[in-house]
Amino acid sequence: MSHQLCHVPGGQMAVTGTPGHGPLAGVRVVELAGIGPGPFAAMLLADLGADVVRVDRPNGTGLAIDPAYDVTNRNKRSVIVDLKTADGAATVLELVERADILIEGYRPGVAERLGVGPGTCHARNPRLVYGRMTGWGQEGPLAPRAGHDIAYIALTGTLGMIGDPDAPPAVPANLVGDYAGGSLYLVVGLLAALHHARATGTGQVVDAAIVDGTAHLSSMIHGMLAAGGWQDRRRANLLDGGCPFYGTYETADGQYMAVGALERQFYEEFVALLGIGDRAPDREDVTRWDELREQVAACFKTRTRDEWTAVFEGSDACVAPVLSLREAPGHPHLAARGTFTEHGGITQPAPAPRFSATPASVRSGPARPGAGTADVAREWDVPRLLRDGG
């Protein structure tokens, strides 16, 4: 690695030019621009202190969002390189020589055709952790095909678990596939491979496929299915809305409350506060679950969401109001913890998780394409960026 070190007070060493403060301070990441799970994974590394350089394309990624509001590019710096030219590939390889991690989200074989595939990169930097983020993975019949979150989670059985049995499966935005099954698994893989690289001096390729990660997320459910404790259909189980004391209920004002009173002691507190403790059907009698659900639903319809929130406030009934995206940052608990933060006029989730010794933070807003060229060229010692990327 060609990181430059300097002395700081106390005799410690710091990496110059790394803007991050957090457990990954000093780690250098090259992100080849894409959309969705790749940028989110790079944002997570940047939030934790890594110095992330996003290599943007001259004409953008095609994502229909103003770069000024794309918070998945916060805490990063951007350079513009045309990878479809020989000079572009050479510039990226100079960055690779100085990096610990690379992230790309192309279809299989594209990075190789552009001259920045794993073989070429490892020839320049054997310690590099090369992260590949795709929906279908690097191999298999569907590997070369296009796709999006909804198709990936559909094949894993995950999408089919969600929603009412008499309606089409409910679409959970792109949280389950892109970000949970994709980004988070890529980050786990990158950090594990980085640990290995630092111990052995040898990098490797991390093949993070959304289908693999999403399937892995359902491990507990598959165990329950094998044991006969899960029915392979929607809203027929303890955790999918089939259980009357684990679900959502409409209130008098058209809002909703979420109920998760699974354990006996929490359930007893729930029905007592709801006002049906003396007449609720036996919760162990599954044949009476529909009756219990109707009773609970009728009760919730008698008051507004705010009124029910006040009723359950401070209890262990495991009941919470269902808030909108704009309402969530104002909830007293989330406000007290600083779960959301504001930077540059944009309210956004704060970095997570939290560290006692190396706290993370939002240090800069969304990286504007090419805006970091001069600083990266100087701090990473890649002057050709100024010539090729302007």
Describe the structure.
The strands form four sheets. Strands 5-4-3-6-7-8 form a six-stranded parallel β-sheet, with helices on both faces. The radius of gyration is 25 Å and the shape is elongated. The chain has 14 helices and 13 strands. The chain starts with a strand and ends with a helix. The protein has helices at about 35-45, 85-95, 110-115, 120-125, 150-155, 175-200, 210-215, 220-225, 265-275, 290-300, 305-310, 330-335, 375-380, 385-390; strands at about 5, 15, 30, 50-55, 75-80, 100-105, 130-135, 205-210, 245-250, 255-260, 320, 340-345, 345-350. About 35% of the residues lie in helices and about 15% in strands. The longest helix is centred in the middle third of the chain and has 26 residues, at about 175-200. Helix 1 (about 35-45) crosses helix 6 and helix 5 (about 150-155) crosses helix 7. Mean pLDDT is about 95; it is low at about 1-20. With about 400 residues, it is an alpha/beta fold.
Q: Residue-averaged pLDDT, rounded?
A: 93
Strand order of the largest sheet: 5-4-3-6-7-8
| Number of helices, counting only DSSP H or I runs of 4 residues or more | 14
Share of helix, binned: 25-40%
Proportion in β-strands: 15-25%
What would you report as the Rg, rounded to the nearest angstrom? 25 Å
Largest pleated sheet: 6 strands, parallel
What spatial form do the alpha-carbon principal axes imply? elongated
Alpha carbon gap, first and last residue: 25 Å
Q: How does the helix and strand content classify structurally?
A: alpha/beta
How many distinct beta strands? 13
What low-confidence regions span 5 or more consecutive residues with pLDDT below 50? Answer: 1-18
